[in-house]
Automatic annotation (TrEMBL):
One of its GO terms (biological process) is G protein-coupled receptor internalization. Belongs to the arrestin family. It comes from the Eukaryota. One of its GO terms (cellular component) is cytoplasm. It holds the Pfam family Arrestin_N. Gene3D superfamilies: 2.60.40.840. This is Beta-arrestin-1. SUPFAM superfamilies: E set domains (SSF81296). It comes from Amphibalanus amphitrite (Striped barnacle). PANTHER family: ARRESTIN (PTHR11792), KURTZ ARRESTIN (PTHR11792:SF17).
Amino acid sequence: MADTSNSKRQGTRVFKKSSPNGKITVYLGKRDFVDHITHVDPIDGVVLVDPEYLRDRKVYGHVLAAFRYGREDLDVLGLTFRKDLYLASEQIFPQPENSKRPPTRLQVGIKDGDRWVGGLMGPG
């Protein structure tokens, strides 16, 4: 019997969010991140930007964490059981010299010519 494990490629789930005008699209490998007390997993993603739209502007990533302490179905009448915590802001493009990192597997897989901006936040 032939070994077919190498011939089958396992897919990766990717989460996509686009701006209303479609000029900026963000792809993330996961949406939920856990604080391990000593570290938090880095946010691996790709930002695709229309080069005409970007011109000489910079792209920043902002991380907002939500602490949920109740079920979503209990959110009624404008009363929510969550607390938003502002965590981090980092320049993604142009990437500062002191934070140059090699592209991740997700970034290489999504790369789209000169539209690729890249992006990885957190410890790398």
